[in-house]
Amino acid sequence: MGEKYSNPTVTEADGDFPGSSDKIEEVLTWMKSFDILIPKPSEARDYLREYDDIIDLLYFVCKITREKFGYGPQLSLEVFRDPESDYRNLTLYVRKVSYEANILDKLEELDYQYGDMLSDKKGYILVTTDFEKPKM
User: Fold this and answer.
1) Residue 45, in any domain of the structure
2) Domain, as residue range, for 65
3) CB atoms within 10 A of CB 19
4) How far is CA 118 from CA 29, 53, 59, 135, 136, in A?
5) How far is it, in rounded angstroms, from Cα 41 to Cα 3?
6) In angstroms, rounded to a whole number, what is the distance separating the alpha carbons of residues 126 and 20?
7) How many CB atoms lie within 10 A of CB 29?
8) DSSP-H helix ranges across the chain
9) Residue range 20-67, pLDDT digits in tens
10) CB-hemisphere CA count at 13 Å for 107?
11) How many domains would you assign to the chain?
């Protein structure tokens, strides 16, 4: 299966991260330009308002995830809510039509690239898969 998206590669967009006062809207717009699905933008927006210290890191996480997986898989930014507590976090789901055996290894490699950067943040970003097919 060839590339699904015709957007520019991640490296072509390097350095184009916005820096204006409305960072939340800019990051959400930037994510859409990278074909990152945001099913409930108001939930993502609310989470980023509360945990604005992760906005710049979110750019990096999305960028390295696209570099690692390319444009074939669907990336979907969602607010995960633990049904047994008030815990929430931003989750970037990687969804594919078929999953290779080493997908969890790839996700772990991503965690090594950004996980330590979360240690001093109030918010949290997780890149994972739910082994679902892309939702269009």
Assistant:
1) yes
2) 20-128
3) 7
4) 23, 10, 13, 28, 30
5) 26
6) 25
7) 11
8) 23-33, 41-50, 55-69, 103-114
9) 338 999 999 999 998 999 999 999 999 999 999 999 999 999 999 999
10) 19
11) 1
Instruction: Output the pLDDT for position 12.
Output: 35
pLDDT band at 8 (very low <50, low <70, confident <90, very high): very low
Tokens of 66: 């696209």
Q: Does residue 124 have a pLDDT over 60? A: yes
Judge whether 54 lies within some domain.
yes
How high is the mean pLDDT of the chain? 85
Question: What global pTM score does this model have?
Answer: 0.82
What span, in angstroms and rounded, lies between the C-alpha atoms of 121 and 118? 5
pLDDT above 90 coverage of the chain, percent: 79
Residue 87 lies in a domain: yes
**Domain-located, residue 88:** yes
